[in-house]
Amino acid sequence: MAMPHDNSTAPAVYVVDDDDGMRRALDALLSTVGYKTAVFSRPSEFLANFKTDSPGCLVLDIRMPDMSGLELQRHLNRMGSMVPVIFITGHGDIPMAVQAMKEGAFEFIQKPFRDQDLLDRINHALKQDAENRNTVARRAEVLHRLESLTPRERQVMDMVVEGAANKVIAIDLHLSERTVEIHRAKVMEKMGARSVAHLVKLHLALIVEAQPPIA
Predict the structure, then answer these.
(1) Residue 215 placed within a domain
(2) Shortest CA distance to 154 belongs to which of 196, 187, 203, 195?
(3) Domain match, 90 and 184 both
């Protein structure tokens, strides 16, 4: 087992493969082109050192004796990990790879493969991981802002995004128009909204994220 070659905050390419030769070759290839790497011979070693909030991607052999790559992927899913998984497969592993894709794997590459093909997939996976983490961070920030609103400000915001005018909001909530204007201004300030259209966009993003996946 080897941990990342440096302590920077750059994303790491994790490699889990029980084949010593393949593991060393992948480590050398990735290090040569400048990736930070962390290589492991067993899934249990990887799990003991992996943190779900660590950026990067995972290059994973699909067939291993103690725990298969597919089993490790399922374990990561249960942990709530979003790390993109690239499976290394043999010709007879295609059905397993297809199942892995159905369960959220990012990509699979079949042996023998060209070094550049693997590097291209890793580069794509790292970009996807960065985008996913940025999306999660943005949503967390919007939720934090939403939680800063008072119950009355939440009522006003809900009506504003539905297109209600201040006069209508005032009547429905039994407030003066001036009070509604004050609440509305506070909502815009706390939510960091540049306009009503921006506020609607923030509100819709939260609703979409909260929707359960379609089975």
Answers:
(1) no
(2) 187
(3) no
172-192 residues labelled b (16+ CB within 10 A) or e (exposed): ebebeeebbeebbebbbebbe
Answer for the pair 41, 18: CB distance below 8 angstroms, yes or no: yes
CA 102 to chain centre: 17
Mean pLDDT estimate for the chain: 89
Which residues of the chain are modeled with pLDDT < 50?
Answer: 3, 5-7, 210-215
Residue 65 is predicted with a pLDDT of 86
Residue-level pLDDT at 213? 42
pTM to 2 decimal places? 0.72
Q: How far apart are CA 24 and CA 9, in angstroms?
A: 23
Domain identity same for 106 and 203 = no
pLDDT of residue 208: 54
**DSSP character for 131?**
H
E strands along the chain, which residues? 12-16, 36-40, 56-61, 85-89, 107-110
pLDDT at 180: 95
Stated length of the chain: 215
- 85 DSSP assignment: E
Rounded (10°) angle between helices 177-191 and 151-161: 90
Q: What distance in Å separates the CA atoms of residue 125 and residue 14, rounded to the nearest whole number?
A: 12
- Is there a single domain that holds both residue 191 and residue 152? yes
Are 41 and 99 members of one domain?
A: yes
